Amino acid sequence: MKHIFCLLIVLFLTCTRQLTEPAVMSLAGVVRLANESDFAGITVALYNAVPGDTATTNRLARFPNVGLDMTKDLAFDHRLVTPAFSTQTDEDGHYYFSNIPDGFYNLVALKSGYGWRYVLNVGSMSEVADMKLYAETTSSGSIETYTVWPAGQHVIVNGDLTVREGATLLIDRGCVIRIGNNYKIVGNGAIQVNGAADDMVWFTANVPSAESGYTAWRGLDASGALTINFARLDFASDGIKTSGSEFTISHSLFSNVGNIGALITRESTGVIENNVFFNCPTGIKIEGNSDAQVINNLFVSAPVSYYGTGLVINASMANVTDNLFRGISTACSFEFNTHGNFLHNYLEDCTTGLYVNKASFEVTKPVRVEGNIMRHCAKAAIDIYNCNSPVVEKNNIHYSGKGLLVSGYAVHWQESKSVSFPNNYWGLTEVNDVLRYIDVRDNDSATQPYQIHIEPILTAPQSDAGPR
After folding, report:
1. Which residues pair with 253 in a beta bridge?
2. Sign of CA pseudo-dihedral 90, 93, 96, 97
3. Where in the chain is the domain with CATH 2.160.20.10?
4. 263-305 per-position pLDDT tens digit
5. Where residue 376 falls among pLDDT bands split at 50, 70, 90?
6. CB 185 within 8 A of CB 210
7. Residues of the chain with CATH 2.60.40.1120
8. Across-strand partners of 163?
9. CA nearest 459: which of 425, 433, 434, 436?
10. 367 touches 356 (CB < 8 A)
């Protein structure tokens, strides 16, 4: 009996230890230096991976064709945080971590003069491929011929850099371009960026600092052909500016930009698709009679200010389709003789959803607003000022208990004081209840008030509204 009792005690203590001891993991791999034979002394560090905002991640799961894979810590920058664990390679380049808490980490290999390489969201089941670091190079002045910045290279731009007309700069996957303080890259010739989903090209400040507000370089200005696929761009006063350019900006992350992520000007034409604009006062601005297709982008967490806007279209034409706007001051603004389409977008937790300001004065060129989902807009889902009324139909505009569904001043349709918003779902089923939250007026008290037509109203949400 005594032996049985002792055995039970041992089993209890063993089980208790298994339940209370934290799970641990190990990681091992190899890092080498290009054109070297001794690989000792390379720092390999692990940083805790920061999960994305849960609400945004849930929305992207619902609309998987929008933006990028935000389950990974794509905005990670090892220069701004402290590592959880660190080690050094041996002469053969081997590194090893043991008994570290189980979880997900961002792995960084770095060495002075060679830059760094990342592997994001490494866990216990991850197989980390061998890594190679290349000696840093510098660039400034002019590029006159076809030039390639190869995969994995760190290029330090230590002066203004111009790609001359007739020349081409091709930037391969994993290349890191570190631009010195107050310098910029100018593309009079062609710039082609060929990143990959798991190895993005990165444009960043050479030394980001709190003193400069982390906006340490002046961006990329392109008047020649511009193609950007799978890139990161951060810590610039402005991100990308096109001027009379044909462009494609695709699958890229713009974050922590001082002013505008992408400025499209002077009759530029092109496509902006599957990008993320994060913490940019203005994500995209399209102006100067330009023509752009804005498709499947994510605009999130822009600083709330008077100009805090996801997308601005000014005196241009744009088709804005299948985008997601969340947590910003104004989601999208059509301004000053602008026309286009705003179709199948998702807007949530914005102060104002869609702002239409002196946009369309031609009856044949209205702003068309259809198939969108608008939720929790604190001021108004749609705000219209001094122009023809946009065509607003087949939307799910959810009244959330605060603000207005539609706000308007000096709005007209074919010069009559009448507006019509039929075939929308408002989250309310009675016409009078909906009209209570639509306020359209002007300061001309001598004429009759506005006629507001909303019938028929839908009693259930449109099933095909929102990004497709």
Report:
1. 232, 276
2. positive
3. 136-453
4. 999 999 999 999 999 989 999 999 999 999 999 999 997 655 5
5. very high
6. no
7. 23-60+67-132
8. 143, 187
9. 425
10. yes
Evaluate if residue 416 carries a pLDDT over 60.
Answer: yes
Q: Positive or negative CA dihedral for 176, 258, 324, 316?
A: negative
Dig out the tokens for 121 from the structure: 């969201």
Strands 418-420 and 396-397: unpaired
**3 state DSSP class of 456:** coil
pLDDT at 6 over 60: no
The Cα–Cα gap between 407 and 427 comes to: 17
When the pLDDT of each residue in the chain is averaged and rounded to a whole number, the result is: 91
Contact 351, 377 (CB under 8 A): yes
Model confidence over 169-199: pLDDT tens digits?
999 999 999 999 899 999 999 999 999 999 9
Residue 10: the pLDDT is: 46
pLDDT digits (tens, 9 = 90+) for 113-139: 999 999 999 999 898 999 999 999 999
**Fold adopted by 23-60+67-132:** Immunoglobulin-like (2.60.40)
How does pLDDT run across 140-158, given as a tens digit for each residue? 999 999 999 999 999 999 9
- On the 0-12 / 13-18 / 19+ scale of CB atoms within 10 A, 365 is middle
Pairing of β 253-255 and β 231-234:
parallel
Cα distance between residue 217 and residue 160, in whole Å? 10
Top CATH class of 136-453 equals: mainly beta
| Widest CA span in the chain | 103
Task: Report which secondary-structure segment, H or E, holds 172.
Answer: strand 168-172
Three-state DSSP state, 458: strand
Q: What whole-number distance in Å separates Cα of residue 190 and Cα of residue 164? A: 8
The pTM of the whole model exceeds 0.85: yes
* AA letter at 130: D
Cis amide leading into 51 (omega within 30): no
Instruction: Read off the tokens for 465.
Output: 């509204």
CA 19 to chain CA mean position, Å: 41
Please spell the DSSP secondary structure of 89-131, one letter per residue.
--TT-EEEEEEEESS-EEEEEEETTTEEEEEEEE-TT--PPPE
Question: Which pLDDT value is given to residue 402?
Answer: 84
Q: Which of 329, 359, 365 is nearest to 347 (CA)?
A: 329
Contact 261, 251 (CB under 8 A): no
Confidence at residue 211, expressed as pLDDT on a 0 to 100 scale: 61
Tokens of 304: 């709330």
* pLDDT reported for residue 361: 66
Query: How far is Cα of residue 239 from the mean position of the Cα atoms in its chain?
Result: 12
